[in-house]
Amino acid sequence: MSYPDHAREQTIGAYDDIALYDGVRTRRVLAFFIDYAIVLALCVPVAVLIFFVGIFTLGLGFFLYPILFLLVAIPYIAISMGGPNQATPGMRMMNIRVVRLDGRPVDSMLAIVHGVLFWALNAVLTPFILLATLVLDRKQTVHDWLLGTAVIRG
């Protein structure tokens, strides 16, 4: 569905209030640590499940261990950030959420791409990810800017 130009401008203008971005950088970092801890905690029961799958499949299931973190993190992001709250549990604790600048809701596919880009860009451009928030509009990180999203309070 395409939006008329004036409707798109009104939607983008809705996210121009600087109060929406007050303290977002700090809250994002804290939310990351909370979410990381939750994903690591969820890895424990999944690792046990993979152990039993490995026994049942005569060892083939053990090949899932190298991607254990991804098996947990991708659904975690897709369900939470791609859900109606548009925020992971850590983000909700920090009272922030992800929004699309075109006004549409964040769906699970965009949430997954957002998470994958975050990890991929961190592997290559670690210092620039956070430094970008000092330069880009709306305190966006590089992956926010590339996807047309922003993190706001509330």
From TrEMBL:
Domain RDD stretches: 26-147
Membrane-spanning residues: 29-56, 62-83, 110-136
Keyword Transmembrane applies: yes
Top-rank taxon, per record: Bacteria
Gene Ontology cellular-component terms listed: plasma membrane
Primary site of residence: membrane
Keyword terms, alphabetized: Cell membrane, Membrane, Transmembrane, Transmembrane helix
Membrane topology per record: Multi-pass membrane protein
Pfam family, one: RDD
Protein name as catalogued: RDD domain-containing protein
Location in the cell: Cell membrane
UniProt entry tagged with the keyword Isomerase: no
